[in-house]
Structure to design on (92 residues):
């Protein structure tokens, strides 16, 4: 179970984690979740110099804030959008 750190809202199940490696990642590591499931954590940097650790999911309960966009994606072939927790609006 993946929870929002700010409010505890259930965002996704561990079975929803989907490994999507990106050649644009600054680094990548495998972590182990509770229960022994392995997850690929990748580090990215946006044009403003902000760094983000990213885990990819097949689906998640999040609020999307504008239509998804393929430009500037860290995952070629995929689109992105800002996502927040639907309960507390914390940036995810």
């Amino acid at each position: 179970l993946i929870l929002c750190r700010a409010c505890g809202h259930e965002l996704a199940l561990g079975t929803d984690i989907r490994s999507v490696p990106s050649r644009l990642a600054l680094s990548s590591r495998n972590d182990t979740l509770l229960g022994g499931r392995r997850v690929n954590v990748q580090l990215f940097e946006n044009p403003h110099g902000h760094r983000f650790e990213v885990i990819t999911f097949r689906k998640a309960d999040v609020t999307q804030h504008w239509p998804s966009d393929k430009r500037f994606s860290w995952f070629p072939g995929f689109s992105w959008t800002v996502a927040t927790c639907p309960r507390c609006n914390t940036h995810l």
Q: What stands out?
A: Residues 2-61 form one domain. The CA atoms of residues 30 and 40 lie 5 Å apart. The longest strand covers residues 38-45.
